[in-house]
């Protein structure tokens, strides 16, 4: 059976200045604060809270492993915990511009992730019982994710 994709929502995740831990045995370790944002979609709407961060490891060639953990409050008042693992990579100059905090054309970067959700509210349990993938775009002040349910 061939999987299908159904759009769930767009996440606009506001981010703060990266905190550099430095070069570790795995690469450059950074923590990027998640400071807010919005969730917009037919099936999911809400506000991303100032409660979380994106934990990054960046290889010398710019390949970036991402592990974001944050919280959204949905429009019905329900809380949603989000863990989003992914990767980002592109041409060396593009990755260098991202590291300097400069704007880049999202078409130059492969940015994909797999969000996972935890919800206490019964009406949002469907989020905990499905697989999701996302396509992302990194901007100096935000990350934009288009989230799809895998059917």
Which terms would index this structure?
9 strands; mainly beta; 151 residues
Q: Which sheet architecture does the biggest sheet show?
A: 8 strands, antiparallel, barrel
Give the count of helical stretches. 1
Strand order in the largest sheet: 1-3-4-5-6-7-8-9
Structural Rg:
15 Å
What is the succession of H and E elements?
EEEEEEHEEE
Poorly predicted parts:
none
Strand content: over 45%
> End-to-end span in angstroms?
10 Å
**Helical/strand content category:** mainly beta
Q: Which range best describes the helical content: under 10%, 10-25%, 25-40%, 40-55%, 55-70% or over 70%?
A: under 10%
Q: What is the overall silhouette?
A: globular
Average pLDDT, rounded to a whole number, is 96
Report the count of strand segments.
9
Structure explained in plain terms:
Helices cover about 5% and strands about 60% of the residues. The chain is mostly beta strands. Strands 1-3-4-5-6-7-8-9 form an eight-stranded antiparallel barrel. The protein has one helix and nine strands, in the order E-E-E-E-E-E-H-E-E-E. The mean pLDDT is about 95.
Topology:
Elements: E1 5-15, E2 19-24, E3 27-40, E4 46-58, E5 64-74, E6 79-89, H1 92-99, E7 110-119, E8 131-139, E9 142-150
Antiparallel strand pairs: 1-3, 1-9, 2-3, 3-4, 4-5, 5-6, 6-7, 7-8, 8-9
Condensed summary:
It is built from 1 helix and 9 strands. It is mainly β.
